[in-house]
Amino acid sequence: MNKLLVPVLCVLAAIGFVVSIYLVFFYTPLDFTIDHDSGRLVGTSLFFNETIMYFHVAHAFVLFTAVFIGGIASALYLWKRKPVWDDIAAATIDISVAFGAVVLATGSIWAKAAWDVWWQWEPRLTMSLLLWLILVGYVLVRKFAGPTADRVAAGMAIFGMVGVPFIYTMVGQDSHPGSGANGVAFTLKGPMVVTFWVSVATFMVWFAALVITRVQSTRLEREVRELRERALDLGVIE
Amino acid sequence: MLRHALRIAWKDLRIEVRSKEIFMTMAFFGALLVVIYSFAFPNDAAAIRGSVPGMLWVSLAFTGTIALGRAFDRERENDTMRALLLAPVPRLAVFVGKAIAMAALILGVAVVVVPLLALWMNAPLFAFPLELVVSIAAGAFGIAIIGSVFAATLLKARSRDVLLPVVLYPILLPLFVAGTKCTAGLVAEHPNLEAAHYWMSFLGIYDAAFLVLSLWVFESLVIE
User: Fold this and answer.
1) What residue numbers bound the domain in which B82 lies?
2) Looking at the predicted structure, is the pLDDT value of residue A53 above 90?
């Protein structure tokens, strides 16, 4: 069962990826209305280039799930000092860097089409960027801080969780399409709903497969390190 | 506890007063930063008004992190951090004492750098001295609180000198944004005191939130 879990998840994600691409481009109609006075196309809040939205928002969902798990795991690690929490935190945050990069990149592409700029210092974008910087910092600390990296990284995750919401209240006007319970994602209509949730499910499954693999490899890394230290202590190896 | 904290802060400050190492090097470094700014930025009056808040807070960030790293290096050199943590005082007193000493040190450097900025850049920084001092003090405390936690945690880490800013700046970013906006309100052609007061209270809330968080996690972060 355990050996099959990751391959099964990977296969599911691969199928979901192909299906969601098909749904995005061939099944879901573009979201626009025709203005009767001018006879021109008028976009809704998504400015009718929302095809990228299905991947952008799905990745953002995964990003926030990953950060949430990573933050909780970091706090639990500092509290209980059980290595398993550290493994989970390291794995989720490691992977959330990649998902965050996709969120920022797809968002930039969308913004160029909708706002005609690649980037705008607007609350949600600034917050996502700051979050991503903290995640990258976390990975750097884990890589380069040596034996005490786990504590520094856990502290960074917890302080980051408290710090990120601050920036949301600080910069500019919110011009990002709505999110949350009344936002775009939960008020989609017709075929868009199916496409959207298929794509979210695909990337959640893919994320689960990645996290499980990463947790396993982190645990193995730690076990090898501990064995090596014990062997050094016993004088078995030089 | 506060008595112990003040004693630890006093110990750190006395070392500094005797050697003056951090204060003198950081003040000189800050002065050099101002010289670099004066060539790196356009220096007509309007442009200065726009860019001086950034110069001020970037200087605080740079000098603050280097000072923090050096101050905690002193505890590492003789492994005295372990002695401090083993001392029969609450561990939180160690943290509070360190944070107070660090804030004093950062403020000491600011006392040199801010007048230099006003003088050499010809910037109207002292139009509202009280607001300026309060906002810089709030900023210095924020840097000192978060900085003390991470400088202490990074004490045994490899390459801690490069990692300290990597860890600190993302977390301190809201503080720098608020500080810059506060100073911008003070030096603008038509000063906006309302905005400055808003950002000052923001700095206060930010400091308070991270003080509480630091008190919670300091012990579990520094204990081996």
Assistant:
1) 2-222
2) no
